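Researcher: We're teaching a course module on how sequence relates to structure. For the next exercise, students receive a sequence and then see the predicted structure as tokens, so they can try to spot secondary structure elements on their own. Here is the exercise chain.
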Amino acid sequence: MEPRSSQPPPSADGGACVFCALLAGCGTAAWIHRGDRASALLPLPDSSLAPGHCLVISQAHVVGMQDAPADVLQAVTSCAQDLARGMQTALGAHGVNVLHASGAAAGQSVGHLHLHVVPRWDGDGLETWPDGRSAHALPGDWLPALRAEVSR
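Model: And here is the predicted structure for the students to work with:
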């Protein structure tokens, strides 16, 4: 595990990072799993989307997917996979939604890499797929540029 300072890193808005504080033992969390690279906890009750909804957070303070080293991202997704399997077996979930936002423009509210793993059941009434489309238009022929960046 990485060494921790006595103060959690600042969040995107300049305040202390709530997830780093919880990982450091400040505050109360309902931990599902504590790992060396990723941990899982229940969200606050008023923000839970379904019974068993969990957050998977990286031990390392990185803001989003774009900032995460590959090993950190792998640890977070591996923990999410373990949770999904556990939700199927222990909760009888028929499926899961894995929700993530990287960056404020995407709706990220806590500036620390995290995934929401939400158990789902047939007919549970939860809608998680966007029903709209972005109005943003990209100029010119953007596809070759994107392909080139991903291939680097």
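Model: If you want an answer key for the exercise: The chain has a mean pLDDT of 90. The first strand starts at residue 31 and ends at 33.
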